[in-house]
Design goal:
Blueprint (H helix, E strand, L loop, with lengths): L10 H9 L3 E4 L2 E4 L8 H8 L4 H21 L9 E5 L17 E6 L2 H10 L3 E5 L13 E6 L8 H14 E11 L10 H8 L4 E3 L10 E3 L2 H8 L5 E7 L10 E7 L2
Parallel strand pairs: 3-4, 3-6, 4-5, 6-7
Antiparallel strand pairs: 1-2, 7-11, 8-9, 10-11
Length: 261
């Protein structure tokens, strides 16, 4: 006979206690402490390579913390921005934590149609759309004050890096900023000896390029490649570099880029 005593504790409460995150139940859906529905495990895994519920919620909050702190260093308050784009928003891991900025027009785009469909149905404080694997997007030129792309360029081949950076430059207003996170020095142990040598010589290294756009494709960005090639050749200037600074995507490097006048 089992020694476990029956419990009347609701399953959402048991999840909350076990994971240390605030969730509750609204109808048949799990919701977070802001009352927003939480996407299912399949969606969470598809866009982040990890279905862990605690990480999905807390990692998204850390992503916002990264955005706010990096902009504050430049004297920019997130709440003062007029329009913001989450490029590669997936199922809203980060964007879901920005809804309280009522004066900021929030937008999200992603290659994942299921992810965007979920966002469109559940995060009604933002506007969403899909994009293809290669540019362009549907947005008008100079649409946004700020764009962030967490772990997006980490999954693009060299042939797509510059075209997407050029598209980000097109979408930014004069004086706008782009925040990107990439695999840097911390990830050298994922590379072969020859790949490490290329990385140290300032070359972009791609693994699994046949799976471009998915978690099976990984790009590794040396600082020299970003600052001397990728940014200036696509109309950007690096104004901040924070090694391992992407709190919501540890231990990725974070770059804040300003659109050249």
């Amino acid at each position: 006979m089992s020694s476990h005593k029956p419990t009347n504790t609701p399953i959402w409460k048991r999840i909350q206690d076990r994971l240390g995150v605030k969730v509750s139940k609204k109808g048949a859906k799990l919701v977070d402490d802001n009352g927003l529905p939480i996407p299912g495990a399949e969606l969470r895994h598809a866009v982040a390579g990890n279905a862990d519920l605690k990480w999905f919620i807390n990692g998204g909050k850390l992503g916002v913390e990264t955005i706010v702190s990096v902009l504050n260093k430049r004297g920019i308050e997130f709440g003062s921005l007029e329009s913001v784009l989450d490029f590669g928003c997936g199922c809203g891991r980060v964007l879901r934590h920005l809804g309280h900025y009522e004066n900021v027009h929030l937008h999200g785009t992603d290659i994942s149609r299921p992810g965007i469909a979920w966002c469109d149905a559940n995060l009604n404080f933002a506007m969403f759309g899909t994009n293809r694997l290669s540019p362009h997007t549907r947005y008008r030129t100079a649409s946004f004050d700020f764009i962030y792309a967490f772990s997006v360029f980490t999954h693009l081949t060299q042939e797509l890096q510059a075209p997407w950076m050029t598209e980000m430059r097109r979408l930014l207003k004069p004086g706008g900023h782009l925040l990107v996170t990439v695999h840097g020095e911390h990830y050298l142990n994922h590379l072969s000896q020859s790949e490490k040598a290329a990385f140290r010589n300032g070359k972009l290294v791609i693994k699994g390029g046949e799976s471009v756009g998915s978690n099976h494709c990984a790009a590794f960005h040396p600082e020299k490649f970003v600052t001397d090639s990728l940014a200036p050749e696509t109309g950007f200037k690096v104004v901040d570099f924070i090694p391992e600074g992407a709190l919501g995507n540890p231990k990725q490097d974070a770059y804040l880029l300003a659109a050249d006048a």
